[in-house]
Amino acid sequence: MNVVESDVVIDGYFESSTANIGDQFIGGQFFQQLLGVSQVRADKSRELRSAAQSAIIGGKQSNALGAMHTYPTTKDDQAFLTARYSKAVALGAAGEPYKFMCADAEGVWSRREHTAEQIIAVALAVEGHITDQLNKLDQLIADLSAAEDAEDLEAIEAIVW
């Protein structure tokens, strides 16, 4: 590791008790480089996008079956639900039953039979859930984009999912 010893803290660094590549060593103390606004913003953007993805695939509750059930929302589940929705719109009652995985209030998962109307309601609820998460992400990214200088670093850190 290269350590540069100096008696002056260079602009953009702060005091630290541990050393990392690129740090300064001054008078027995390590000084780490401060992250610039663009780097902090990029890190926060990744954090927010990850949180949005987790929220999207975290499942959605619907009472389409007459009682509250939890529906899975992973990418594969979304694709299959889209197929179920399309079939229900095209065939209606003639394509019933439309079996789809969900958990009841006790947490028991099984492929339960749905009518065309029920599977369409589930699909629309899941689509609304995904849209809500993406709208929230859009707003947070817009808030993040407004941060332009070092004074905005605290505002960036305050943006949370």
Compact description:
The chain has helices at residues 37-56, 75-91, 116-145, 153-158; strands at 4-5, 13-16, 24-26, 29-33, 60-62, 69-71, 98-103, 109-114.
Rounded mean pLDDT is 87
Number of distinct beta strands:
8
Query: In whole angstroms, how far apart are the ends?
Result: 37 Å
- What is the strand arrangement across the widest sheet? 1-3-4-2
Number of helices: 4
Tell me the domain tally.
2
Uncertain regions spanning at least 5 consecutive residues: none
N-to-C SSE string, H for helix and E for strand: EEEEHEEHEEHH
Helix content: 40-55%
**Largest beta-sheet characterization:** 4 strands, mixed
Helix-strand category: alpha+beta
Query: From the alpha-carbon coordinates, what is the Rg to the nearest angstrom?
Result: 25 Å
Shape: elongated
> Beta-sheet strand percentage?
15-25%
Organism: Methylomonas fluvii
InterPro entries: DUF4376
Domain DUF4376: 39-154
Protein name: DUF4376 domain-containing protein
